Amino acid sequence: MALIRLLQRKPDGAIVFREPSSDPIPTYAILSHTWGKEEVTLRDMEADADRSKTTSKAGWAKIQFCADQAAADGLQYFWVDTCCIDKKNAVELSGAINSMFWWYQNAARCYAYLSDVSTSEGARGERAWEKAFRTSRWFTRGWTLQELIAPREVDFFSAEGQRLGSKLSLAAGIQEVTGIPEKALRGDTLSSFSIRERRSWAERRTTTIGEDGAYCLIGIYGVAMVLNYGEGREHAFGRLEKKIHILYKDRLLRIDFEQYAVRFSLSSFPEAAQFVAREQELSKMYELL
């Protein structure tokens, strides 16, 4: 797992980096959002000594929101992908993407900031934001899939920073919008969902870069991949499928016969407890099946 670079909100409100180290990771909050045209980058945070240029960028509002909300929840550390990853460093970027699911899964709090959902029209009704919530761009992006699934808790916020609810309190509506079963939103292990079912959750989602369509599913399937931007979407998905095949074949967790829509598991048979794996027999069984 890659080391994580966190932001820290000081008691005086200043926001600084806590550089990656091998020390135990402190408790932290994490931000989930969709990227805009003017995001704050790692280079901005490092180069702008007085922060005047950085804080004037549109993307700063999300960082400030995350810092303030984390502080309100008793947390001084937080993570924002736009400025906590050195994207010019291929090794760091690859490590970060392969660790991303884990980072979201282990965050104490996850804040989903919906920049296209406003609560300023609340006079028309207490939940007038619901229509905008259901059509939010956040539900259409590839990377936000794992950001919805991985954390134990996800709190949704409007563009004004008003809390809309959690993924548990809004689970029924989220299922309708995304097609993701409520039991997945409520924390059922991903291994209880077939490979095909998990893939279906991403079918209506898009990524700016073609290869990211495959890379954003790394955590959903629990595999690791070396990133190769430029290989093309189809090739990236081909490599992902090979990784999935190897993982599920070698661990004997479950064989998904997607072509025939059939599930097979050794745990279905009482005799499996007495089964002793042998390479030759397993290979023949796999070939026949």
TrEMBL record:
Pfam family, one: HET
Listed transmembrane segments: none
InterPro entries given in the database record: HET
Chain ranges of the Heterokaryon incompatibility domain: 28-127
PANTHER family: HET DOMAIN-CONTAINING PROTEIN, NACHT DOMAIN-CONTAINING PROTEIN
Protein's name in the database: HET-domain-containing protein
Organism: Polyplosphaeria fusca
